[in-house]
Amino acid sequence: MGKVIPLAAQILFGALFLLTVPSDCVATGDAVEGRNKAQPCLTCHRKGNVVLGEKTPIISGQYQDYLVKSLSDYRSGARKHQVMNELTANLSDKDIEDISAYYSGLKSRLSNSNHDNN
User: Fold this and answer.
1) Under 8 Å CB-to-CB from 52, ≥6 apart: which residues?
2) For residue 22, pLDDT beyond 90
3) Given pLDDT bands bounded at 50, 70 and 90, which one contains residue 86?
4) Residue 85 lies in a domain
5) How many domains does the chain fold into?
6) Which domain CATH number covers 36?
7) What is the distance between the terminal CA atoms of the chain, rounded to a whole angstrom?
8) Domain housing 32
C-alpha cells in the first residue's frame, strides 16, 4: 500500500507549487467586470458566438492569453484593424484582462453543438 500524505503536507505542497508557477501563466481578470466592460464589443462580437459579418471572429471560449495578447496588440498598433485599434486605445491592462476573462469563460458553439449561449 502507498503512504498516505497528511492533509497539511498536501496543502503546503500545493501552496509551494503555486508560488513556483510564473505569474504570466496564471489567468487573471474578473469576468463579471469584463462583461460590463465588453459592452462596446457587443456591436460586432455580440456574446462571442453570434457575430456581425463573416469576417468577425467568434471569440467565446477562446484562450484567455490569446485574447489578452490580441487586445494588447490592437491597443499598441502592432495589430492593425481600424475599429479594434480605436476601441482598445484607452483600455488599461486590467480592462483587457477582465474582458478576456469574460469572453474566455463563455461556451463556444465551435466546440459545442448546444447554441443556447447566444
Assistant:
1) 43, 44, 45, 46
2) no
3) very high
4) yes
5) 1
6) 1.10.760.10
7) 51
8) 28-105
